[in-house]
Amino acid sequence: MRKQTFNTQGGDRVAGFTLIELLIVVAIIAILAAIAIPQFMLYKERATKASMVGDARHIATQLMVLHGAGENTYTNAPTPIVGGTPESVTAADNSVIVFTATTGNTVTLTGLTATTYTITVSNPSVGPKTVVRAEDGVCTYGGLPC
User: Fold this and answer.
1) Is the dihedral of CA 76, 80, 82, 85 positive or negative?
2) Contact at 8 Å (CB) between 76 and 65?
3) Mean pLDDT of the chain
């Protein structure tokens, strides 16, 4: 590309970019942003989904510990469990079981009986999609398998 020089009031010549060169640079940046931003959003959603699935597995493990600690039921489990705020339960054998969730996630336990439970993990950053895990280990995210 040809550099153009311009005369200033003092008579010195100053090199600069042409308008076309600047427009080309702006267009390239816009194209890169159009590609990168949607990819970043997908990465962010996948990371959030992974934290939600991880929380569902962790809570399922804690429910099994509670069930095996002399409770023989899931009905004493805390709900909801808000991310960043641990909830604890003292089991029948006097052991303390701590339920935690990742910051940003909210875990809700429903259908708590002696043999069944349903874990629902939600996060506002992924909208209405939730992770649902039942006592049989089946896990779904937004209605699809985890």
Assistant:
1) negative
2) no
3) 88
